Amino acid sequence: MTEDSKPPLTRIQQKNRDIILEAALTVFSTRGLRGATIDRIADAAGLSKPNVLYYFGSKDEIYRTLLTALLDTWLAPMLNIDSNGQPMDEVLGYVAAKLQLSRDYPRESRLFAYEVLQGAPHLEGILGGRLRDLVENTVAVLERWMAQGRLKPVEPHHLIFSIWALTQHYADFDVQVRAVLGPGHDPYAEAELYLENLFRQMLEP
Amino acid sequence: MTEDSKPPLTRIQQKNRDIILEAALTVFSTRGLRGATIDRIADAAGLSKPNVLYYFGSKDEIYRTLLTALLDTWLAPMLNIDSNGQPMDEVLGYVAAKLQLSRDYPRESRLFAYEVLQGAPHLEGILGGRLRDLVENTVAVLERWMAQGRLKPVEPHHLIFSIWALTQHYADFDVQVRAVLGPGHDPYAEAELYLENLFRQMLEP
DNA sequence: TGAAAACTTTACCAAACGGTCAGTTTGAGG
DNA sequence: CCTCAAACTGACCGTTTGGTAAAGTTTTCA
Predict the structure, then answer these.
(1) ipTM of this predicted structure
(2) Where is the HTH tetR-type domain (chains A, B) (predicted)?
(3) Binary contact (A131, B180; C-beta < 8 A)
């Protein structure tokens, strides 16, 4: 009864599951869940369609696996905010970490964006549960810092939203950013400076 | 030769085209181009599938029609920035106008987000053409104001990006915003205050 | 080495999809 | 009221899609 029904993965399973998830991430993040086809994922993975379905029972299962794995990566920086650190350093560190996530994992950012755009049907209680709790904790820390006069007071929920919006924009709207800037720009490098200044101006007491 | 090949629309044509576009906007903005089906659009419009295709030759044509119409609405506020106005008022006015657009036309915002997420395949030269020119003009105005010391100097392209990111976030990530805030909040009302303060702090000389 | 387990493939569904067509109904103008 | 174009429909078609069945191949390990 208490068996975990988790047969250990063989070497081949491990490798092929990774290959499939890697390929699926690219496909899902450029076409969305409904726009992606198993054929395309199989193609990108260099496997046959039935072989892909040998490792994951359905397209949805691949998607859900990606989304679940993504969440931890995605929320990690917020957990890293140290309530005993210097407020300004902590906030700017969080902004920088989130921006780096957008730079290094743009596919994950876009996958998440697709999901939320749709109304987050696969994130059921998570947004209003785990995510909300995490935000509430951070909000409490921010409010303490503001009450102590170590940050200028602003609405902390919206401060968090603005960090998310500003950093993810560079991944999700990458095409637009690059088209508008034209060649010879490094959006992320410029954004790093811009955003540090922005939050400094807004929050430095 | 110079005939415009534009047969005038009958009353019924006008009405049904509008109904279809209205229904399609809802469907496209919640499922994306590929996730939407003509059947679903027809259903939402209360028309039969062949009848929908009587008014628009294909799904793509409906989509392109929506996207084109959307662009004008979308870019209008930027055209409204008055280079002879008070810099701070103009910038804050633009922010407020964009936020209102997100509040009043969230479906349009999400449709646009889907398109750009995909790499904007239907916006071919527009992002790097018309949009870029428009931004370049605005950037010039902003730079002048900054040079005159009427705004604190920041990188103007990224200032524009940040306005887009912050305002559209409330439409595109609506589900997340509401889930995190919990009930009893008016995200847009709060955002209005928050964003005004943000840009004031960042830009007021 | 040999047999079981793990892996892969070919061939194939049934459903959903974008779109067509032949013909019927509707309604505006004379 | 009649006529005819405009508006509409049901039946259909070829393709794509998610997924399965069954048989073949490779790997593992006793």
Answers:
(1) 0.93
(2) 14-74
(3) yes
